[in-house]
From TrEMBL:
SUPFAM superfamilies listed in its UniProt record: Winged helix' DNA-binding domain
Coiled coil: none
One Pfam family cited in the UniProt record for this chain: HTH_5
Protein name in the entry: Transcriptional regulator, ArsR family
Keyword Ion transport assigned: no
Organism: Kryptobacter tengchongensis
InterPro entries reported for this sequence: ArsR-like_HTH, HTH_ArsR_DNA-bd_dom, Metal_resp_trans_reg, WH-like_DNA-bd_sf, WH_DNA-bd_sf
UniProt GO molecular function: DNA binding; DNA-binding transcription factor activity
Organism lineage: Bacteria, Pseudomonadati, Candidatus Kryptoniota, Candidatus Kryptobacter
Amino acid sequence: MELKKLKNSDFTEEAEILKILGHPIRLKIVCGLIEQSLCVNDIGDCLGEPQPKISQHLALLRAKGIVKAEREGVNIKYRVVHPLVIKIIKLVEREKLKE
């Protein structure tokens, strides 16, 4: 794509998504939620992070429409719902497999 054409394009949403995914913990959370839904405690256990820290990151991801919370019995499970984020994470995972 030519730079001249990009000048008039709005990349605000894409820039915001990349900024949010720029935090290592949030990136790990999103990578883990691509293939499965998990609750806060499961995410915290997998990452070795305290539940309050995971909850803060999930709140931001929810506010930006990247993940969605769904009640399953007594648990609330999270999953990635943003199509662009899914594409980005699959690309990142594919590149990591090459290493």
